[in-house]
Amino acid sequence: MDTGKSMFKLTYFDIQGRAEPARCMFAYAGCRYEDERISYEEWPSRKSLTPFGKLPVLEDSGIEICQSTTINRYLAKKFNLFGKDEKESLLIDMVCECCYDMVKPLEKFECISSKDIEGKMKDYREKELPDLLKNLENLAKKYGSKGHFVGNRMSLADILFYNTFDYGIRTFYQVCDSSCLKNYEHLQGICEEVKSNGNIAKWLNKRPVDQYKFVRT
């Protein structure tokens, strides 16, 4: 789906973060867009110009769309990544909510001191995360395949899980490495399917290197 002249503009910081699922969907669809990346120094002067004072913001034909979950659903529907019918859309939405739940506890760690973080991180790694992964694995077994959460084709659920685990869990918060998935055959397959997709693989190979990590203060 090469639209020729870019009709989309995605604005976010120069990190993967909340905008990366959208970038992966653009890559998957072969759709051109303007990938505007702003610095943290630039953000205070730009904040008031956004609808809710937050990023990312997606512009499409003069409309500003904010909230990453809304952006993800909007692009998924445009690029045929939101299921073939109402039932599949429901399942995809459910997986997405589980992915958001995976990082919510970790976001709270940014407000506590390092002496308290390690114990909480250990509890999350050994108790909360395995429960979430087990539930997602069971859902993929029931409704999908070894490469997809729902049916036998790529969806937002697959792309969002890959980004949530690869960036949020593994890279940014450094909860664990890929071995966290060793007992979850379907989840491993989903990650492999996403990162080996032709268009997405090209994007992963050329995207800017993200050096930003969660720092335990």
UniProtKB/TrEMBL annotation:
PROSITE patterns xrefs: GST_CTER (PS50405), GST_NTER (PS50404)
Tell me which UniProt keywords the record has, alphabetically.
Eye lens protein
Q: Do you know which InterPro entries this protein is assigned to?
A: Glutathione-S-Trfase_C-like (IPR010987), Glutathione-S-Trfase_C_sf (IPR036282), Glutathione_S-Trfase (IPR040079), Glutathione_S-Trfase_N (IPR004045), GST_C (IPR004046), GST_superfamily (IPR050213), Thioredoxin-like_sf (IPR036249)
Q: Name one GO molecular function term.
A: glutathione transferase activity
- What are the residue boundaries of the GST N-terminal domain, all occurrences included? 6-83
One GO biological process this protein is involved in is: glutathione metabolic process
- One Pfam match, by short name? GST_C_3
Per the database record, which ranges form the GST C-terminal domain? Answer: 85-212
Kindly give the PANTHER family that the UniProt entry links to this protein: GLUTATHIONE S-TRANSFERASE
Role noted for this protein: S-crystallins are structural components of squids and octopi eye lens. Contains relatively little if any GST activity.
Similarity field: Belongs to the GST superfamily.
Q: What is this protein called?
A: DgyrCDS1359
**Organism field:** Dimorphilus gyrociliatus
- Taxon lineage: Eukaryota, Metazoa, Spiralia, Lophotrochozoa, Annelida
